Amino acid sequence: MKANDSFLATLNPAGKLLAHLIVMFLLMAVSNPKVTLLIWLLAVFMGIFLGGWSLTYLLKRLLPYVGFFILICWMMAAFGEGEETLWKWAWFHMTVESLNHGLTIALRMLAFVTYGLLFTSTTDITLFIMSLIHQCKLSPKWAYGLLAGFRFIPLFQSELTQMKTAHKVRGYKQKNSWKAFMRYALPLFTQGIRKSERIAIAMEARGFTGKRDRTYYQTTKLAAKDFVYLLSLLIVTWGIMTFIE
């Protein structure tokens, strides 16, 4: 999770997450594919004009999911039930109702991915953790543990790359995928335990006890633009659900 220079990157992460989660919950109550499509296009519109997305960036992130969404739509449409038949062959029976249901489910999943991408691509992980502490009253002990866990991910990726390179240099070839997994997982797991112990000792040495009454280098606050974004997104989404049939 890295923030860019867009407008959405300047919003409070907790407020932005709340707005997107509410839209996702509203999507669960939608059974009209047109409404679901428009709510998804709203996320695309915000990503391009407010989130700093380019069409290339959007296509690279969403194309890996397109095949999965098409498969979900086909399974829902071709094996559904309904009265008005559109196409029938062998054991496939596509009706108007099943097609609408398949499109709704597939577009809903695509909207979930897009709104999630809209949050992660415009949010700094450190500010997100700070907003969980200040706005959501999350315990600092859990918050800093979560932050440390996120920081370990790129470290594990770089270490895994180094291990694979070292094995190639030494001419190691492993055809058994399970043995290869164990060969990489064991040293990564061991190094992770060592690093977690070092971090715990360093935090205790600096007086970290997990209490809430402590000072912070970074603080986050809810501003007027956060409430404007939340209300605007909810009003537009509710308008689409109300007036589009």
Q: Mean of residue pLDDT? A: 84
What is the strand content? under 5%
Q: Calculate the terminal CA-CA distance, rounded to whole Å.
A: 37 Å
Helicity range of the residues? 55-70%
Q: What is the count of helical runs?
A: 8
- Spans of at least 5 consecutive residues with low confidence: none
> Structurally, how many domains make up the residues?
2
Extended strand count:
2
- For the CA atoms, what is the radius of gyration? 23 Å
Order of helices and strands: HHHEEHHHHH
Strands across the major sheet, in which order?
Answer: 1-2
Shape: flat
Strand and helix layout:
Layout: H1 13-28, H2 33-49, H3 55-78, E1 85-89, E2 92-95, H4 96-120, H5 125-134, H6 140-169, H7 177-205, H8 224-243
Antiparallel strand pairs: 1-2
Helix pairs in contact: 1-4, 1-8, 2-4, 3-4, 5-6, 6-7
Condensed summary:
This protein has 245 residues and is mainly α. It is built from 8 helices and 2 strands. The protein folds into 2 domains: 8-128 and 222-243, no CATH class; 140-205, no CATH class.
Describe this structure in words.
Helices cover 70% and strands 4% of the residues. With 245 residues, it is mainly alpha-helical. It has 8 helices and 2 strands. It has 2 domains: 8-128 and 222-243, no CATH class; 140-205, no CATH class. The chain has a two-stranded antiparallel ribbon with strand order 1-2. The chain is flat and about 70 Å long. Strand 1 (85-89) and strand 2 (92-95) form a beta hairpin. Helix 1 packs parallel to helix 8 (224-243), helix 2 runs parallel beside helix 4 and helix 3 packs antiparallel against helix 4.
